[in-house]
User: What shape does this take?
Amino acid sequence: MEMRNCPKCGKLFTFTTVPICKSCEKKEEGQFEVIKAYMDENPSCTLGQLSHETGVPTKLIVRFIRDGRLQITNGMRGEITCESCGKPITTGRYCDACFIEINREVKEMFDNNTPLKRSAKMHYMKSKK
Assistant: This one.
């Protein structure tokens, strides 16, 4: 088990898969519920309005959207863009076309590699040039 300091509050915690301590995670989950409830009642709100009215930082709201936990409303159209091509998206990091292309490239990369050297601990791959 790895011990880390929470980047939000500085408290020492046991790192599993969530990069913050349990109390900060619980606080974020509460903020998520507030955001979700506000968006349900105000489907045409903008990102700025959502942050201002709920008191939740825009950065956290964007992270929830990028993580796929929230989908933007009509009022937020164009505020969140694909990290690859810049097209407007409603959730996640990439538009559908870029997501498909990235998956194709990763699959192709793995399909075109052959094992080079095998050891008990690691596998080395040689890429096809």
Summary: The beta strands are 2-5, 12-15, 114-118, 123-126. The helical segments are 22-41, 47-54, 58-66, 96-111.
